[in-house]
Amino acid sequence: MKPLTIPQAAQRDQNSVQMLSAWIAERGLHCTLNIGFFESAGHTEAKAWGILLADLVRHIGNAVAVERGTPADETVTAVFTAIQSELDFPTSSAVGEFHVGHA
After folding, report:
1. How close are the terminal C-alpha atoms of the chain, in Å?
2. What letter would DSSP give residue 66?
């Protein structure tokens, strides 16, 4: 397993909360999601996840701009297009187990 670095801000903030982790393993996507966190904080779960995912896509755009020189807005548009296509015409099914709680 090749884990990523935990951001410095998350390490400094005693109130930081991990919201998702994703791995490519055994030829598929495997993820851990912190479902229920937003609702417990008084937010609509689906809307808050949408905001989180939009922020994540912008971070991907910024990272690709720094690492590859591709303008961030081009990457954001390409990712958004790929998301819409995958939602409309899935290349694989999203199956798995749901576990409540933390490690």
Report:
1. 17
2. H
25's enclosing H/E stretch is strand 20-25
More confident residue, 101 or 42: 42
Q: How many CA atoms lie within 13 A of 26 on its CB side?
A: 3
Asked if 38 and 44 count as a contact pair (C-beta separation under 8 A), the reply is yes
Q: Look up the pTM and report it.
A: 0.88
Domain boundaries, the chain: 18-88
- What per-residue string of b and e applies to 43-79 under the rule 16 or more CB within 10 Å gives b? eeeeebbeeeeeeebeeebeebbeeeeeebeebbeeb
Q: Does domain 18-88 have CATH number 3.30.2370?
A: yes
Residue pLDDT, tens place only, 60-69: 999 999 999 9
User: Region 23-36: what's the mean pLDDT?
Assistant: 89
